[in-house]
Design goal:
The chain is an all-alpha fold and about 325 residues long. It has one domain (about 5-335). About 75% of the residues lie in helices and about 0% in strands. It is built from 15 helices and no strands. Helix 10 (about 200-210) crosses helix 13 and helix 12 packs antiparallel against helix 13. The longest helix is centred in the middle third of the chain and has 31 residues, at about 95-125.
Length: about 325
């Protein structure tokens, strides 16, 4: 690795990781498939399934840049969340939406953190190969499509015919609004809002998420465990879980990005020492270049996706995953 990672490879992989980590299309799956499809030195040098893979250390190390991009984009939310966590510990209470959301993220991170430490090596060495990655990418597409079909069917079902507890987003949002009447409504000019203040809109999104039960948000967060499988998207599987639990696309995407930040930051920090050891010998310049590409790609991606999911769905990403996985399997089979 240290002798063969070029700046071109570092920049391409870095940008791809930053984009694919947040788009619901699996960054690890793409990190496995891209070298295999390009072939040649890429397939030989960029292999995450080897026991002591310097490529894996490089890819996971890029997570630090991705996480920093998320922190920068959501810095107001993180100020409120960390403030809520501090006041909750200080006052020994959990009452405000910020306090509830902070503990939802803390508790929701525990299952995926433990699973990552116990299962990451096994899943990577056994399944971190092109054909399994392409297969899981297609499964990821099916999950995204299935979640969209499920919520569409739920919203078309008359309220009286729904099972107990099977509410939809609008009713939950209304209940949240009633619970937090002290907050200004961005859609109500009489309350001082005109529907255009993004910070107020974000606050209300956080309120809707925080109105959920701790069990619900922990289940949504635990879906990230499946992202240990190459080809299963962290953001995609978390969004799908959020949608099936009644969150809107916008709220599911925001919660997914907030949940992902501590997880991918911790994963990256754990690999940084490897990059400053023997695995990173001779490639520190490439690592820096790739990290910059990853950070820029992640920031632009989250900016795009938070707007996309205000009005659009996961269907285009589901179609992409199905096609990309199927084409990859065909190309690898005939090569």
């Amino acid at each position: 690795m240290s002798a063969h990672l070029s700046y071109a490879e570092a920049l391409v992989v870095g940008a791809m990781q930053g984009v694919a980590e947040l788009f619901p299309v699996s960054s690890l799956g793409h990190s496995v498939l891209l070298p295999a499809l390009v072939g040649g030195s890429w397939a030989r040098d960029l292999n995450v399934s080897t026991p002591e893979s310097p490529y894996l250390a490089y890819v996971v190390g890029l997570h630090v840049a991705t996480a920093l991009a998320l922190v920068i984009f959501f810095w107001r939310e993180w100020v409120r969340i960390l403030g809520g966590l501090f006041t909750s510990i200080r006052d020994r209470r959990v009452e405000s939406p910020d306090q509830r959301l902070a503990w939802m993220i803390v508790i929701g991170t525990i299952p995926v953190g433990i699973s990552g430490l116990l299962l990451e090596h096994l899943f990577r060495t056994v399944l971190g190969r092109p054909v399994p990655a392409a297969t899981f990418l297609m499964i990821n597409g099916l999950v995204l499509y299935g979640a969209e079909r499920l919520i569409r069917r739920s919203r078309q079902t008359p309220v009286a015919a729904r099972p107990a507890g099977a509410g939809v987003y609008r009713s939950t949002a209304a209940a949240t609004d009633a619970r937090h009447v002290s907050q200004p409504d961005v859609d109500d000019p009489a309350a001082g809002g005109d529907g255009t203040d993004p910070d107020l809109a974000n606050i209300r999104s956080n309120q809707r998420i925080a109105s959920r039960s701790l069990l619900t948000t922990t289940l949504i967060a635990s879906a990230q465990i499946l992202a240990l499988l190459p080809g299963i998207s962290r953001s995609g599987i978390t969004m799908a879980a959020g949608l099936t639990r009644g969150l809107s696309h916008e709220d599911a995407a925001r919660f997914s990005f907030l949940l992902a930040t501590p997880v991918i930051l911790a994963a990256g920090v754990l690999k940084v020492p490897d990059l400053f050891g023997h695995l990173g010998t001779g490639i520190h310049g490439q690592v820096l270049a790739g990290s910059i590409a990853s950070g820029v790609g992640a920031y632009l991606s989250v900016r795009f996706l938070t707007r996309w999911f205000t009005t659009r769905t996961l269907i285009p990403f589901a179609v992409y995953c199905l096609l990309a996985g199927a084409i990859s399997i065909i190309v690898l089979a005939v090569r």
